[in-house]
Every structure is written in C-alpha cells, then in structure tokens.
Design brief:
The chain is an alpha+beta fold. The chain has one domain. The protein has helices at residues 2-38, 79-82, and strands at 45-48, 53-59, 64-70, 73-78, 83-86. One of its GO terms (biological process) is protein transport. The chain crosses the membrane at residues 6-23.
Length: 94
C-alpha cells in the first residue's frame, strides 16, 4: 500500500511546481490584462499587440476602441486581443 502512494509523490510534486511557477502567474497576468482593458478611457496611451503606440480616441463598444496612431490616422482595435499594454499607467512597476 505504501509503495503505491510513494510512486505518485513525484507526480504530485511536479504538478504543484507547475501550478505555482506556470499556471498561477499566467492566470494573474490574464486577470490584470482584462482589468486594464476594461478600464481604458479616452486619452490613454496604449501599445497594440503589433507594437504600434497610439492614443485612445473613443470607446466604440465593449469590444472595440478607436486609437489614433498618427495625425488624422485612426484605427479600430479589438480591446481584448489588440491592446497589449498601457503606457501612461499611474502605478509604477518594480
């Protein structure tokens, strides 16, 4: 009986390590990104997933925003996948 449980201990340890070093941080990152995207407002400077820096001109709906990337050049971007980060974030990363 003890041998059977002893064989599963390394597998359980591997799962615990994967959870704390891979799964949990990824879930936290996704949650932070979702909160950032939901709190976008006019005037925020953003970086798109393509690496283009622009300013949010208007929120079209829950899924899209209009971003000005140059003078008289505005593009519609899907918020959840098109916005990678916020440049003028009030909180300082350490």
């Amino acid at each position: 009986m003890d041998q059977g449980i002893g064989q599963f201990i390394p597998l359980i340890l591997i799962f615990v390590i994967f959870y704390f070093f891979l799964i949990r941080p990824q879930q936290k990152k996704v949650k932070e990104h979702k909160a950032m995207v939901e709190n976008l407002s006019r005037g925020d400077k953003v970086v798109t997933s393509a690496g283009i820096i622009g300013t949010v001109e208007r929120i079209i709906d829950n899924e899209k925003v209009e971003v000005q990337i140059a003078d008289n050049v505005k593009v519609e971007i899907i918020k959840s996948t098109g916005i990678q980060g916020l440049l003028n974030s009030p909180e300082v990363k350490k």
